[in-house]
Amino acid sequence: MPAKKDFSLKPYNTFGVDVKCRYFIEISSIRKLYEAIRFLKNVKLPVLVLGGGSNVLITKDFNGVVLLNRLKGKEIAEDNDEYVLLKVNGGEDWPGLVDYCVNNNWGGVENLSLIPGTAGAAPFQNIGAYGMEVKDVVTTVEAIDLSSGERRLFSNADCAFGYRNSVFKSTERGKYFVTTVVLKLTKKPKVNLDYAPLKNAFEGRAEDDVTIQEVSEAVKKIRRSKLPDPEETGNAGSFFKNPVVDGAKMKELLSRYHDVPAYPFGENQFKLAAGWLIEKSGWKGKRMGDAGVSSKQALVLVNHGNATGKEILILANEIRKSVEHNFGVKLEFEVRVV
Ligand code: EPU
Questions:
Q1: Is-catalytic flag, 164?
Q2: Fewer CB within 10 Å of terminal CB in the chain, N or C?
Q3: Mean per-residue pLDDT for 185-193?
Q4: Residue 96 near residue 78 (C-beta atoms within 8 A)
């Protein structure tokens, strides 16, 4: 098995943190995956699966085996007048996949344009943006159990999708390697302009006249203006989840701050904008050494150059403390901290 030893993960995490792993194996075929599973049995070390490395903060050298999902390829599994079922291998680049769907006029993922990462990682945290989530189009996830080598099919319900969550991120964490994801894409797309800034972008236009190609372009424009580009400044998108509070807490917050952004989220629950809480706590644009808070979007932590994973984690914990102190609201990490 051609495992690389003491290998730097710097190019494989979008924070650009310079940490090493004990072994590194690139998985470009199912055969290689089975070889890697045999290798794992022999070395008896922990395993970490990486796709685009766009939602992970690695805080120290990893004394284990990193498996990089580079299973490429996609095929149409079913095609009719209404929809296509597109079977995508886990290592396919997500933004490229969205462009492919949009160019074919297959609807359902256009609002998820330009989200960094891979197709296999998309179900892990149920990626979402601008009023859409990947759970709305995933029909099946095929994964291999890394300890037994067994192949398992997860239906949409089996994935137990939630807000930036799934069975892969919660109860079955670290257990599976995603080989394929099947997406159901509509051939009669209807745009989703629920997210206010997106609606504003098409002001004066009838919704039926707006195409998914235009929506994809608008989403890209919003993302480029609001979010730092990981190619330029290391980051992993939203570092925290937007917290959910109950009606009583919401009332208390509104009595203190009339402009607190919040959205109804289930019965008597409200989702707050963590970016707002962090900005109001004075953190936007701040830095501690090379670890910083984006000046464009306070929910995003950035690496200005040579920050270590530990330094970014210390900053994240300081932000958490201060938001809890100011608002009595606990922030949860959205990124996976290793
Ligand atoms: N806000 C501030 N200050 C900031 C940032 C935001 O006051 O520095 C306020 C905005 O003014 C707005 C509200 O917070 O009223 C919401 O901001 P925004 O629309 O930018 O979205 P978000 O809630 O901060 C979430 C997702 C993003 C996704 C956008 C758009 C999470 C954790 N984040 O961010 O997802 O792109 O909505 O749908 O749910 C990601 O997961 O990595 C990610 C970038």
A1: yes
A2: N
A3: 97
A4: no
